[in-house]
Design goal:
alpha+beta, 7 helices, six-stranded mixed sheet, 484 residues
Length: 484
């Protein structure tokens, strides 16, 4: 094994986070019933990618009615589904990684985060609850992703509740069942309502009661949405049901998002098919697609050193905008987004693992990685370090990896070195980074700064030869033969 010229001392660790300074994070949340459709050609507006100002720290995408026909669903079990691939393709060049995802038939939940936050996100778990066919079928129900973010517990819950105006009580019963059934392994946060922040969103299917279709449509045409708020079934339920009263929602200052003709901003013009194919009533517009949140009452919270600060607010949520997106017409629902500011007082100051590449990296010689970990880090012989392109999509999107124990070459109290064989290094070079994956924690525990791998001579010669071939002037194509 040839390690070549390496610099054995580790680079300085990243600057620790000041626990006394509130951290402001930006979250963009999407809910969309896509009606079994394929992804649209562009989602720039939906994700506010062209907006001025600071970018998002986290994106959460909740979809309902993703195509779950048996052939599609079996294929998606073996491979990423088209919607996940689509969003990973959008986000990875922008510096976001798919942190976690969960699929239950047509329900899909995806969480993407900026690289810088990855070492401070831990305890990631997913869960699902079926409520269709008395709990045996997953066409309705809820899926969740929960995590610890800078020491605070956050849960995202994507739901698809029963349809039709007369099923308001069934929707409430199903939501209560989802809350009761979602139990987590974390002894500090066993129930879904124990999280510091809970986001609840999806096609909740609540309708506008009492008012007729003509009054509803006339109120919408005149942008007098406030006339409809008091008869919105979810608003009505929040006044009566104690378990809903801690959930907050922004004002419904946008058109009801259901039901539209496809590829149109015109409300339902087709009659509903009924028995013997006679046309029934057109669907009354409704705000079926919603985003709500709940902040647990935090009177005190322990910091990393175990101190408690009495009466101090350590986390808060601010809604910056809550809108629908009328330009998307692939289904009979319009997508809804909420952009939030999370004000968090970090309870974690340093990553569990700090790692760096050592020396110059290329495919000519074996390369070296140095890493160090905090004393309480629960290391395992199954931990590994992955080499990733900077625009990597998810934790399994590595180029190669090294086992931290099997490939270890030296270790001291402060730093450990592992190597990767030259045969595993990309000859073309480019910009890469390293991630330390913890088997016990089932997450990335540390991430390096981006660094360059130098292209090998073989790669450079191949590229030069290709340029020479491309530079050779090709003879003119002969004129097409025409015998007439």
């Amino acid at each position: 094994m040839s390690l070549g010229r390496v610099r054995m001392e580790p680079r300085g660790p990243p600057q620790p986070i000041d626990l006394e300074i509130m951290k402001n994070l930006r979250l963009h949340l999407v809910t969309w019933n896509v009606g079994t459709a394929s992804p649209p050609p562009d989602v720039t507006g939906l994700l506010q990618l062209s907006s001025q100002g600071p970018g998002m720290d986290m994106y959460v995408i909740g979809l309902q009615e993703v195509n779950s026909k048996i052939i599609n669903f079996l294929s998606d079990l073996a491979f990423d589904d088209p919607w996940s691939i689509f969003f990973m393709t959008v986000f990875s060049p922008l510096g976001y990684i798919k942190l976690s995802s969960i699929r239950m038939q047509g329900l899909l939940l995806l969480v993407f985060v900026k690289h810088a936050h990855i070492p401070f996100i831990r305890d990631i778990h997913t869960h699902y609850t079926r409520t269709g066919l008395y709990g045996y079928w997953g066409n309705k129900g809820g899926v969740t992703i929960r995590m610890s973010l800078y020491g605070h517990t956050i849960c995202f819950m994507n739901c698809h509740l029963p349809a039709h105006i007369e099923n308001a009580e069934q929707r409430l019963d199903d939501f209560e069942k989802i809350l009761e059934m979602h139990q987590f392994e974390d002894e500090n946060v066993p129930d879904i309502l124990d999280h510091d922040i809970l986001f609840w969103f999806g096609d909740l299917n609540f309708r506008i009661a009492d008012y007729g279709i003509h009054f509803v449509r006339e109120s919408i045409s005149n942008s007098r949405y406030n006339l409809l708020w008091e008869k919105d079934q979810l608003n009505m339920a929040k006044k009566k049901e104690a378990f809903l009263q801690e959930f907050i929602e922004g004002p419904l200052q946008f058109k009801p998002t259901y039901k539209f003709d496809l590829h149109s901003d015109v409300y339902d013009t087709r009659g509903q098919k009924t028995l013997f194919w006679f046309n029934g009533k057109k669907r009354k517009p409704a705000w079926t697609d919603r985003i709500l949140w709940r902040v647990k009452n935090l009177s005190q919270h322990p910091s990393e050193d175990g101190d408690l600060s009495e009466g101090e607010q350590t986390i808060s949520v601010t809604l910056n905008n809550y809108i629908s997106h009328m330009s998307y017409g692939i289904s009979d629902h319009k997508p809804v987004t909420g952009t939030f500011g999370l004000q968090i007082k970090p309870l974690l100051s340093t990553p569990l693992v700090t790692l760096n590449p050592e020396g110059e990296w290329n495919a000519v010689q074996d390369v070296l990685i140095s890493y160090s970990s905090v004393s309480e880090f629960p290391s395992s012989t199954w931990d590994w370090i992955g080499l990733y392109q900077v625009a990597f999509r998810h934790v399994n999107d590595y180029v190669t990896y090294a086992w931290v124990k099997d490939d270890e070459i030296s270790s001291s109290e402060d730093v450990t070195h592992v190597y990767i064989s030259a045969d595993e290094i990309p000859h073309a070079g480019g910009e890469f980074l390293l991630c330390y994956y913890s088997h016990n924690m089932q997450c990335i525990a540390g991430i390096s700064q981006p660094f360059q791998i130098q292209p090998s001579r073989r790669s450079a010669e191949k590229e030069l030869a290709q340029e020479n071939i491309n530079g050779i002037e090709k003879p003119h194509s002969p004129e097409p033969y025409n015998e007439f």
